[in-house]
């Protein structure tokens, strides 16, 4: 099915490339910069810095697992209206190169977030979950701010002020993680997929995962059995589940190993409930820290 969708996407792109240069609407009707981000972390940064001076869109909707996402033909055409496109990179968005082929790169500022941080390797390839380190978010935010200033110089002071406030929040969040996790009594967590390397590497925590970098990589019965044995041997008390991924396999392990289930949110997108409750990157990362504290410190 994914192969079929990819073929349709390639056909759509080939049709749209010829139309890209005809598009002259590079701002919305209110004269705001048009910013497209690939999914939630980049959306959060751009929104916090640009606020009401930009018309911002997320290509991957909230509530959708970005690892398995495919943009529609409508979205591909809409992105051609962008002044700025921000994406994660490090092979997170398998569709991004084809989408970027439709854009006039002379008129659009394109930010590959992974180029501005130090990538950590997992299973021999770069781990794309770069946003789970608040300091990486700060670095990416700086690049977004610089792009907004370049494209909209008259509002430079506005963007500089907003970025400074955001940077302060991210620095404080990083300090909170350091203060809590330096006192850890245990050093192993069992997670539903390997999304948390930028936390575990930084704080010397062993991450045992049910699946690999991509959450749709279902483990074999043998692997599930081995994970249950590991949980019992290491006397683990908790297993961390996510908000967007299927809990089926992790639930089996939790039941067999008698583990309490906690949430560790990879922040790939907000659920409808999180949106309605006014949650954002900072508040959810703080909740992640509370649960890590419960598993490793208390």
Automatic annotation (TrEMBL):
Is Nuclease a UniProt keyword of this protein? Answer: no
A Pfam family: ZnuA
Q: Does the keyword Signal apply?
A: yes
Record GO biological process: cell adhesion; metal ion transport
Keywords, ordered alphabetically = Coiled coil, Lipoprotein, Signal, Transport
Give the PROSITE patterns listed for this entry.
PROKAR_LIPOPROTEIN (PS51257)
Matches recorded under Gene3D superfamilies: Nitrogenase molybdenum iron protein domain
InterPro entries reported for this sequence: AdhesinB (IPR006129), Bact_metal-bind_prot9 (IPR050492), Lipoprotein_PsaA-like (IPR006128), ZnuA-like (IPR006127)
Signal peptide range = 1-20
Give the molecular function GO annotations: metal ion binding
User: Which residues, by range, are in coiled-coil regions?
Assistant: 156-187
- Family, as annotated: Belongs to the bacterial solute-binding protein 9 family.
The protein in question is named: Zinc ABC transporter substrate-binding lipoprotein ZnuA
